[in-house]
Amino acid sequence: MAGRDTTDACELDAWIGIGANLDDPKKTVLAAIRRLDEQDGVTLRRSSSLYQTKPISNIDQPDFINAVVCIRTSLDPLGLLDVLLMVESEFGRTRDDSVNGPRVLDMDLLIYSDLILDLPELSVPHPRLTERLFVLKPLQEIENSINLPGLGSIDEYLHACRNQQVNKLYDDG
Questions:
Q1: How many other β-carbons are positioned within 10 Å of the β-carbon of residue 125?
Q2: Hey, which residues are catalytic here?
Q3: Helix axis angle, 25-37 relative to 77-90, nearest 10°?
Q4: Is the dihedral of CA 26, 27, 28, 33 positive or negative?
Q5: How far apart are CA 105 and CA 40, in angstroms?
Q6: Buried (b) or exposed (e) across 105-116, using 16+ Cβ within 10 A?
Q7: Which residues lie below 8 Å from residue 97, measured CB to CB, with a gap of 6+?
């Protein structure tokens, strides 16, 4: 049953990056987190604060709202990817070839346990995880000493991204 913590030997932790910058992005990110927790085979364990982020492209667009969640899942990586794509679609996301453009919702599988995977449809850890402070800061918030599978400590990557502008939002922000 979704939303229940049914710790089981075949369940693993995974970390998901969630972002949006169209319509009401704060509301969308929070609703997407709730929707993810409702899925079969997924239980929300921890959720970061929301972070406001300047777009990383030269495309004129609003700031993003980002968060990272840790889930416990019985789904394999491709099954979890299918769930993320379905939730995005429910929120009106249409996938196209635009890179770093505006998004009603974007959900990325960042880390799946200690797995390293490189398939045409999915790479884990996420290939740009170490380059994006808007992912690293909320990830560190909920997993302070996490080691990135095959990549090492999160600390060195945080330092390398220090020039990116990412601001933690508070309840009144």
A1: 20
A2: 93, 103, 106, 108
A3: 140
A4: positive
A5: 20
A6: bbbbbbbbeeee
A7: none
> What confidence score (pLDDT) does residue 2 get?
46
Residue 13's Cβ-side half-sphere holds a number of Cα atoms within 13 Å equal to: 14
Q: What is the spatial distance between Cα 10 and Cα 76, in angstroms, rounded to a whole number?
A: 10
Complete domains list, the chain, with CATH: 12-168 (3.30.70.560)
pLDDT of 4 over the 80 cut: no
User: Residue 88 contacts by C-beta under 8 Å, 6 or more apart in sequence?
Assistant: 95, 105, 106, 107
* Predicted structure pTM score: 0.91
The predicted-structure confidence for 81-126, as pLDDT tens digits, reads as follows 999 999 999 999 887 756 777 899 999 999 999 999 999 999 999 9
Backbone angles phi, psi at 146, to 5 degrees: -65, 140
